[in-house]
Amino acid sequence: MTERTRHPWVASLSARIGFGLQAVAAQFEGDRGAALIRAGKLAEQHGYNAFFLGDHPAWAPECWLHLAVIAAQTERIRLGQLVAAEPYRTPLLTARLQSDLDRISNGRSILGLGIGWNAADYGLGENEFSRMGLLYPPVRERQAALEEAIAIIRGVWGADPFTFTGEFHSANDARVDPPIQIGGVPLVIAGAGARTLGQLARLGDIGNFGAGPAGNVTTPADAQVRLEVLKAQCAAVNRSYDDILRSHFTHWAIVASDERALAAKIDRYFPNGLDEFWGKYLVAGTVEAVAEHYQGFVDAGITFFVIQTLDPDDEESIAAITHAVAPRLKPAVGL
Q1: Which residues of the chain are modeled with pLDDT < 70?
Q2: Fold classified for 8-328
Q3: Hey, where are the domains in the chain?
Q4: Cα dihedral: 214, 217, 220, 222 (round 10)
Q5: Cβ contacts of 138 within 8 Å, gap of 6 or more
Q6: Would you say 154 and 186 are in contact if contact means Cβ atoms under 8 Å apart?
Q7: Nearest partner of 43 among 312, 298, 287, judged by Cα
Q8: What is the pLDDT of residues 21-38, one digit of tens each?
Q9: CA distance 164 to 171
Protein backbone atom coordinates (compact mmCIF):
# COMPACT_ATOMS: atom_id res chain seq x y z
CA MET A 1 0.00 0.00 0.00
CA THR A 2 1.09 3.58 -0.57
CA GLU A 3 -0.04 6.92 0.83
CA ARG A 4 1.24 8.81 -2.20
CA THR A 5 -1.43 10.62 -4.20
CA ARG A 6 -1.46 12.62 -7.42
CA HIS A 7 0.88 15.59 -7.26
CA PRO A 8 -0.79 18.95 -8.04
CA TRP A 9 1.52 19.56 -11.00
CA VAL A 10 0.74 16.13 -12.45
CA ALA A 11 -2.96 16.85 -11.99
CA SER A 12 -2.57 20.14 -13.87
CA LEU A 13 -1.44 18.19 -16.96
CA SER A 14 -4.20 15.58 -16.88
CA ALA A 15 -6.20 16.99 -19.80
CA ARG A 16 -3.34 17.47 -22.27
CA ILE A 17 -0.05 16.14 -23.58
CA GLY A 18 2.88 17.84 -21.86
CA PHE A 19 6.38 18.55 -23.10
CA GLY A 20 9.70 19.05 -21.40
CA LEU A 21 12.97 20.11 -23.02
CA GLN A 22 16.34 18.73 -22.03
CA ALA A 23 19.50 20.36 -23.38
CA VAL A 24 23.02 19.01 -23.80
CA ALA A 25 25.68 21.28 -25.26
CA ALA A 26 27.44 18.51 -27.18
CA GLN A 27 27.32 20.41 -30.48
CA PHE A 28 28.48 23.71 -29.00
CA GLU A 29 32.13 24.78 -28.98
CA GLY A 30 31.79 27.92 -26.85
CA ASP A 31 30.64 28.34 -23.25
CA ARG A 32 28.53 25.25 -22.77
CA GLY A 33 27.04 26.42 -19.49
CA ALA A 34 25.85 29.64 -21.10
CA ALA A 35 24.32 27.60 -23.94
CA LEU A 36 22.32 25.51 -21.45
CA ILE A 37 21.06 28.65 -19.71
CA ARG A 38 19.92 30.05 -23.07
CA ALA A 39 18.09 26.79 -23.78
CA GLY A 40 16.27 26.97 -20.46
CA LYS A 41 15.05 30.47 -21.27
CA LEU A 42 14.01 29.33 -24.76
CA ALA A 43 12.03 26.46 -23.22
CA GLU A 44 10.00 28.93 -21.17
CA GLN A 45 9.61 31.28 -24.14
CA HIS A 46 8.25 28.50 -26.35
CA GLY A 47 5.77 27.10 -23.86
CA TYR A 48 7.40 23.93 -22.56
CA ASN A 49 6.05 22.65 -19.27
CA ALA A 50 9.49 21.79 -17.89
CA PHE A 51 13.20 22.12 -18.57
CA PHE A 52 15.70 19.46 -17.57
CA LEU A 53 19.44 18.94 -17.44
CA GLY A 54 21.20 15.60 -17.28
CA ASP A 55 23.54 14.68 -14.44
CA HIS A 56 26.93 13.90 -15.95
CA PRO A 57 29.59 15.80 -13.99
CA ALA A 58 32.39 13.89 -15.73
CA TRP A 59 31.55 15.48 -19.09
CA ALA A 60 28.85 18.16 -18.70
CA PRO A 61 28.19 21.33 -16.69
CA GLU A 62 26.80 20.75 -13.18
CA CYS A 63 23.02 20.45 -13.31
CA TRP A 64 21.79 21.98 -10.03
CA LEU A 65 24.04 25.02 -10.38
CA HIS A 66 22.85 25.82 -13.90
CA LEU A 67 19.21 25.09 -13.07
CA ALA A 68 19.48 27.62 -10.24
CA VAL A 69 20.74 30.25 -12.68
CA ILE A 70 17.85 29.46 -15.03
CA ALA A 71 15.42 29.64 -12.11
CA ALA A 72 16.55 33.19 -11.39
CA GLN A 73 15.92 34.18 -15.03
CA THR A 74 12.53 32.50 -15.59
CA GLU A 75 9.10 32.74 -13.99
CA ARG A 76 6.88 29.82 -15.01
CA ILE A 77 8.70 26.73 -16.23
CA ARG A 78 9.40 23.73 -14.02
CA LEU A 79 13.09 22.83 -13.57
CA GLY A 80 14.71 19.50 -12.77
CA GLN A 81 17.27 16.81 -13.47
CA LEU A 82 16.57 13.96 -15.88
CA VAL A 83 17.82 12.33 -13.97
CA ALA A 84 20.33 12.72 -11.16
CA ALA A 85 22.34 9.57 -10.55
CA GLU A 86 21.59 8.70 -6.94
CA PRO A 87 25.02 7.11 -6.30
CA TYR A 88 26.90 10.33 -7.17
CA ARG A 89 25.96 12.11 -3.90
CA THR A 90 24.87 11.41 -0.37
CA PRO A 91 21.10 11.66 0.13
CA LEU A 92 21.48 14.64 2.46
CA LEU A 93 23.48 16.55 -0.15
CA THR A 94 20.82 15.79 -2.76
CA ALA A 95 18.13 16.98 -0.34
CA ARG A 96 20.01 20.22 0.25
CA LEU A 97 20.63 20.91 -3.45
CA GLN A 98 17.00 20.21 -4.35
CA SER A 99 15.52 22.27 -1.55
CA ASP A 100 17.74 25.21 -2.45
CA LEU A 101 16.64 24.92 -6.09
CA ASP A 102 13.01 24.79 -5.05
CA ARG A 103 13.36 27.93 -2.98
CA ILE A 104 15.30 29.84 -5.64
CA SER A 105 12.65 28.88 -8.23
CA ASN A 106 9.76 29.77 -5.92
CA GLY A 107 8.49 26.20 -5.83
CA ARG A 108 9.07 25.10 -9.43
CA SER A 109 11.54 22.27 -8.96
CA ILE A 110 11.28 18.62 -10.01
CA LEU A 111 13.60 16.00 -8.51
CA GLY A 112 14.69 13.30 -10.94
CA LEU A 113 16.47 10.24 -9.58
CA GLY A 114 17.86 7.09 -11.16
CA ILE A 115 20.48 4.47 -10.44
CA GLY A 116 22.95 5.45 -13.16
CA TRP A 117 24.08 3.51 -16.22
CA ASN A 118 27.25 2.48 -18.03
CA ALA A 119 28.02 4.66 -21.06
CA ALA A 120 30.41 1.98 -22.34
CA ASP A 121 27.48 -0.39 -22.87
CA TYR A 122 26.25 1.94 -25.63
CA GLY A 123 29.57 2.87 -27.20
CA LEU A 124 29.62 6.27 -25.50
CA GLY A 125 33.01 6.07 -23.82
CA GLU A 126 34.23 5.10 -20.37
CA ASN A 127 31.76 4.33 -17.58
CA GLU A 128 31.13 7.63 -15.78
CA PHE A 129 31.33 5.87 -12.42
CA SER A 130 34.90 4.88 -13.30
CA ARG A 131 35.75 8.41 -14.42
CA MET A 132 34.54 9.71 -11.07
CA GLY A 133 36.41 7.08 -9.07
CA LEU A 134 33.19 5.45 -7.88
CA LEU A 135 32.26 1.80 -7.57
CA TYR A 136 29.59 0.52 -9.97
CA PRO A 137 27.47 -1.87 -7.87
CA PRO A 138 25.03 -4.38 -9.37
CA VAL A 139 21.60 -3.13 -10.42
CA ARG A 140 19.81 -4.67 -7.43
CA GLU A 141 22.11 -2.90 -4.98
CA ARG A 142 21.68 0.44 -6.75
CA GLN A 143 17.90 0.00 -6.75
CA ALA A 144 17.89 -0.72 -3.01
CA ALA A 145 20.17 2.26 -2.37
CA LEU A 146 17.81 4.49 -4.37
CA GLU A 147 14.91 3.56 -2.12
CA GLU A 148 16.95 4.32 1.00
CA ALA A 149 18.01 7.66 -0.50
CA ILE A 150 14.39 8.67 -1.15
CA ALA A 151 13.51 7.83 2.47
CA ILE A 152 16.35 10.01 3.75
CA ILE A 153 15.67 12.91 1.37
CA ARG A 154 12.04 13.07 2.44
CA GLY A 155 12.95 12.41 6.06
CA VAL A 156 15.41 15.29 6.39
CA TRP A 157 12.80 17.61 4.83
CA GLY A 158 10.52 16.88 7.80
CA ALA A 159 9.79 19.02 10.83
CA ASP A 160 12.11 17.13 13.19
CA PRO A 161 15.71 15.90 12.98
CA PHE A 162 15.79 12.58 11.13
CA THR A 163 17.79 9.43 11.81
CA PHE A 164 17.99 6.48 9.42
CA THR A 165 20.28 3.47 9.26
CA GLY A 166 20.13 1.40 6.09
CA GLU A 167 22.31 -1.05 4.26
CA PHE A 168 23.67 1.58 1.90
CA HIS A 169 22.84 4.99 3.39
CA SER A 170 22.38 6.57 6.78
CA ALA A 171 21.59 9.90 8.39
CA ASN A 172 21.94 10.91 12.01
CA ASP A 173 19.91 13.69 13.62
CA ALA A 174 19.77 15.45 10.25
CA ARG A 175 17.45 18.13 8.93
CA VAL A 176 17.46 20.31 5.81
CA ASP A 177 15.33 23.42 5.23
CA PRO A 178 12.45 21.88 3.28
CA PRO A 179 11.21 22.80 -0.20
CA ILE A 180 8.44 25.39 -0.32
CA GLN A 181 6.14 24.19 -3.10
CA ILE A 182 2.62 23.06 -2.33
CA GLY A 183 2.38 19.28 -2.55
CA GLY A 184 6.12 18.86 -2.13
CA VAL A 185 8.68 18.30 -4.87
CA PRO A 186 7.43 15.92 -7.58
CA LEU A 187 9.72 12.93 -7.99
CA VAL A 188 10.78 11.37 -11.29
CA ILE A 189 11.95 7.77 -11.04
CA ALA A 190 13.63 6.77 -14.28
CA GLY A 191 13.71 3.32 -15.81
CA ALA A 192 11.45 0.63 -17.23
CA GLY A 193 12.20 -2.54 -15.29
CA ALA A 194 9.48 -4.19 -13.21
CA ARG A 195 11.19 -3.42 -9.90
CA THR A 196 11.78 0.21 -10.87
CA LEU A 197 8.16 0.59 -11.94
CA GLY A 198 7.15 -0.86 -8.58
CA GLN A 199 9.22 1.82 -6.84
CA LEU A 200 7.57 4.42 -9.05
CA ALA A 201 4.10 3.20 -8.11
CA ARG A 202 4.89 3.39 -4.40
CA LEU A 203 7.18 6.41 -4.20
CA GLY A 204 7.15 8.52 -7.37
CA ASP A 205 5.05 10.96 -9.33
CA ILE A 206 6.58 10.83 -12.81
CA GLY A 207 7.94 7.86 -14.70
CA ASN A 208 10.40 8.37 -17.52
CA PHE A 209 11.82 5.89 -19.98
CA GLY A 210 12.97 5.87 -23.58
CA ALA A 211 15.16 4.08 -26.08
CA GLY A 212 18.57 2.59 -25.37
CA PRO A 213 20.10 3.68 -22.05
CA ALA A 214 16.83 5.35 -21.05
CA GLY A 215 15.18 1.94 -20.59
CA ASN A 216 15.20 0.21 -23.99
CA VAL A 217 11.67 1.45 -24.72
CA THR A 218 12.07 2.29 -28.40
CA THR A 219 8.64 1.78 -29.96
CA PRO A 220 5.03 2.46 -28.96
CA ALA A 221 4.58 -1.28 -28.56
CA ASP A 222 7.49 -1.34 -26.09
CA ALA A 223 5.90 1.54 -24.18
CA GLN A 224 2.52 -0.19 -24.03
CA VAL A 225 4.09 -3.31 -22.53
CA ARG A 226 5.92 -1.34 -19.83
CA LEU A 227 2.83 0.74 -19.03
CA GLU A 228 0.83 -2.42 -18.47
CA VAL A 229 3.48 -3.41 -15.91
CA LEU A 230 3.18 0.00 -14.26
CA LYS A 231 -0.61 -0.32 -14.18
CA ALA A 232 -0.30 -3.66 -12.38
CA GLN A 233 2.25 -2.24 -9.93
CA CYS A 234 -0.10 0.65 -9.13
CA ALA A 235 -2.99 -1.76 -8.56
CA ALA A 236 -0.82 -3.85 -6.23
CA VAL A 237 -0.32 -0.86 -3.89
CA ASN A 238 -3.86 0.52 -4.32
CA ARG A 239 -2.73 3.60 -6.21
CA SER A 240 -4.47 5.16 -9.18
CA TYR A 241 -2.55 4.62 -12.42
CA ASP A 242 -3.45 8.19 -13.38
CA ASP A 243 -1.51 9.50 -10.38
CA ILE A 244 1.61 8.86 -12.47
CA LEU A 245 2.72 11.19 -15.25
CA ARG A 246 3.91 8.77 -17.92
CA SER A 247 6.85 10.28 -19.80
CA HIS A 248 8.89 9.12 -22.79
CA PHE A 249 12.41 10.39 -23.47
CA THR A 250 13.90 11.27 -26.87
CA HIS A 251 17.69 11.31 -27.04
CA TRP A 252 17.70 13.97 -29.77
CA ALA A 253 14.90 15.42 -31.88
CA ILE A 254 15.66 17.43 -35.01
CA VAL A 255 12.82 19.11 -36.89
CA ALA A 256 13.02 20.91 -40.24
CA SER A 257 10.59 22.53 -42.66
CA ASP A 258 11.13 19.99 -45.45
CA GLU A 259 13.22 16.95 -46.34
CA ARG A 260 15.95 18.99 -48.03
CA ALA A 261 16.41 21.25 -45.01
CA LEU A 262 16.34 18.20 -42.73
CA ALA A 263 19.09 16.48 -44.72
CA ALA A 264 21.21 19.63 -44.51
CA LYS A 265 20.84 19.75 -40.72
CA ILE A 266 21.72 16.10 -40.29
CA ASP A 267 24.75 16.47 -42.57
CA ARG A 268 25.93 19.42 -40.49
CA TYR A 269 25.68 17.48 -37.24
CA PHE A 270 26.95 14.19 -38.68
CA PRO A 271 29.36 15.00 -41.55
CA ASN A 272 30.61 11.40 -41.52
CA GLY A 273 27.13 9.92 -41.38
CA LEU A 274 25.10 8.59 -38.46
CA ASP A 275 26.96 6.27 -36.11
CA GLU A 276 25.37 3.16 -34.61
CA PHE A 277 23.86 4.96 -31.62
CA TRP A 278 22.28 7.84 -33.53
CA GLY A 279 21.26 5.58 -36.38
CA LYS A 280 19.00 3.83 -33.86
CA TYR A 281 17.84 6.63 -31.61
CA LEU A 282 17.75 9.94 -33.49
CA VAL A 283 14.24 11.29 -34.11
CA ALA A 284 14.47 13.55 -37.16
CA GLY A 285 11.81 14.67 -39.61
CA THR A 286 9.39 17.30 -40.78
CA VAL A 287 6.69 18.51 -38.41
CA GLU A 288 4.23 16.02 -39.88
CA ALA A 289 6.60 13.06 -39.55
CA VAL A 290 7.64 13.92 -35.99
CA ALA A 291 4.01 14.39 -34.95
CA GLU A 292 3.16 10.97 -36.36
CA HIS A 293 6.07 9.49 -34.39
CA TYR A 294 4.84 10.93 -31.10
CA GLN A 295 1.18 10.18 -31.76
CA GLY A 296 2.08 6.50 -31.71
CA PHE A 297 3.37 6.87 -28.16
CA VAL A 298 0.34 8.90 -27.10
CA ASP A 299 -1.89 6.12 -28.40
CA ALA A 300 0.14 3.67 -26.30
CA GLY A 301 -0.56 5.67 -23.13
CA ILE A 302 2.29 8.18 -22.86
CA THR A 303 1.15 11.54 -21.46
CA PHE A 304 4.37 13.57 -21.46
CA PHE A 305 7.47 13.80 -23.64
CA VAL A 306 10.95 14.95 -22.75
CA ILE A 307 12.68 16.10 -25.92
CA GLN A 308 16.44 16.32 -25.74
CA THR A 309 18.50 18.51 -28.02
CA LEU A 310 22.26 18.29 -28.37
CA ASP A 311 22.26 21.74 -29.92
CA PRO A 312 20.80 24.26 -27.43
CA ASP A 313 20.76 26.91 -30.15
CA ASP A 314 18.60 24.90 -32.56
CA GLU A 315 15.61 27.15 -31.92
CA GLU A 316 13.89 25.87 -35.06
CA SER A 317 13.50 22.39 -33.57
CA ILE A 318 12.84 23.66 -30.04
CA ALA A 319 10.03 25.91 -31.25
CA ALA A 320 8.57 23.41 -33.72
CA ILE A 321 7.87 20.83 -31.01
CA THR A 322 5.55 23.05 -28.99
CA HIS A 323 4.14 25.30 -31.71
CA ALA A 324 3.67 22.80 -34.54
CA VAL A 325 4.06 19.18 -33.33
CA ALA A 326 2.14 19.41 -30.05
CA PRO A 327 -1.06 20.90 -31.56
CA ARG A 328 -1.26 17.94 -33.95
CA LEU A 329 -1.34 15.36 -31.15
CA LYS A 330 -4.67 13.94 -30.03
CA PRO A 331 -4.91 12.58 -26.47
CA ALA A 332 -5.66 8.89 -26.22
CA VAL A 333 -9.05 7.85 -24.89
CA GLY A 334 -9.52 5.26 -22.16
CA LEU A 335 -5.87 4.46 -21.43
Answers
A1: 334-335
A2: TIM Barrel (3.20.20)
A3: 8-328
A4: -160
A5: none
A6: no
A7: 312
A8: 999 987 777 899 999 999
A9: 5
